[in-house]
Specification:
The protein has 321 residues and is an alpha/beta fold. Helices cover 23% and strands 29% of the residues.
Length: 321
């Protein structure tokens, strides 16, 4: 487990009986979390002082119960110095706030690898959401292409770039279906040194395209392998789908990327430390591929023994749209 334990503006105060008590800046929110299956006594006295509570509906979705008037949006900061990001928080009708705080541990990982490369790095961030990973990579010096199917979410990412004073960084913000975009990039001959994908369990593209993670993830990883540069740096896949284990994601990266590029793979859960108990709530998982000669900074995986799969023949790039 890799905990995101460097936050100052975010804190998971307590967690029990299907709910989290969280501090977002000065605001206290209670949100449901299906991973919190334990029913231990509440440890924090701040449960009674929550500013808003999200209630799930039996028909799907849910709504917020506000105990005091809150601003529509506010800002929190993550990191320090040149790594500092300022992100906009806004409670949505689907319980989310625009920031997945557990991803901060991955943002720091990307930044370390980009800076250590000591060369220009191009990153493709698929299903980029509100841009936390995009801005982290850009702050570390990478050129980033950010792709998400939601126009509103991409606009939120651009607002985060403004808040983080990163509008001068080389970032392309694109509203597009991720699989179709990757296919076009292959035809154009465009390549990337790093790829990040954080796909949803289920979703729809801007043209109504249906995405189901278990059915689509392997094909997308295979497509993305074909838009990696000749000297790629890393490939990261995040998942919040409980039925897709970290080891499964790592296996796909190992069998897709290692035969062509060598390198090593790893995987682990990510999580948030609970201030009241000292425990860590799991919040998804990440699998990584990392080029040879780059310090992993991760626990070794049993999957890093040599494999004998032969590289697949690469299709000729036509450069056509």
């Amino acid at each position: 487990m890799r905990p995101a334990d460097t936050w100052k503006d975010y804190e998971l105060l307590d967690a029990t009986d299907g709910n989290r008590l969280e501090r977002w800046g000065e605001t206290l929110l209670i949100r449901p979390d299906p991973q919190v299956v334990w029913k231990t006594p509440k440890q924090s006295p701040l449960w009674a002082k929550a500013d808003a509570i999200y209630h799930r509906s039996n028909q799907g979705g849910g709504e917020w119960e506000y105990r005091r008037r809150l601003p529509e949006k506010w800002k929190i900061s993550c990191g320090e110095g040149e790594d500092k990001l300022t992100l906009i928080v806004s409670p949505t009708g689907f319980k989310h706030t625009g920031v997945f705080p557990e991803q901060a541990v991955n943002w720091a990982w990307y930044q370390q690898k980009i800076r250590a490369a000591n060369r220009p790095v191009k990153v493709l961030n698929l299903f980029g959401y509100t841009g936390g990973a995009t801005l982290a990579c850009a702050a570390a010096g990478a050129t980033v292409c950010h792709v998400d199917a939601s126009k509103g979410i991409v606009a939120w990412g651009k607002d985060n770039a403004v808040a983080s004073s990163l509008t001068d960084k080389p970032i392309r913000w694109l509203v597009d279906d991720c699989a179709k975009f990757v296919a076009r990039e292959k035809r154009r001959g465009n390549t990337y040194d790093g790829i990040i994908m954080d796909p949803p369990s289920y979703g729809r593209g801007p043209g109504g395209e249906i995405w189901k993670l278990e059915d689509c993830i392997y094909d997308l990883i295979s497509q993305c392998e074909e838009v990696l540069s000749d000297t790629p740096l890393f490939f990261a896949v995040n998942s919040y789908t409980t039925g897709l284990s970290p080891a499964v994601m790592e296996y796909m990266l190992k069998t897709t990327l290692v035969p062509r590029f060598g390198g090593k793979t790893s995987c682990d859960e990510i999580g948030l430390p609970v201030s009241a108990t000292g425990g860590v709530v799991p919040c998804g998982a990440t699998a990584f591929w990392l080029a040879d000669g780059v310090q992993a900074g991760e626990k070794k995986s049993s999957m890093n023994a040599p494999i004998v799969l032969k590289p697949l023949a690469q299709e000729a790039q036509t450069g056509e749209e």
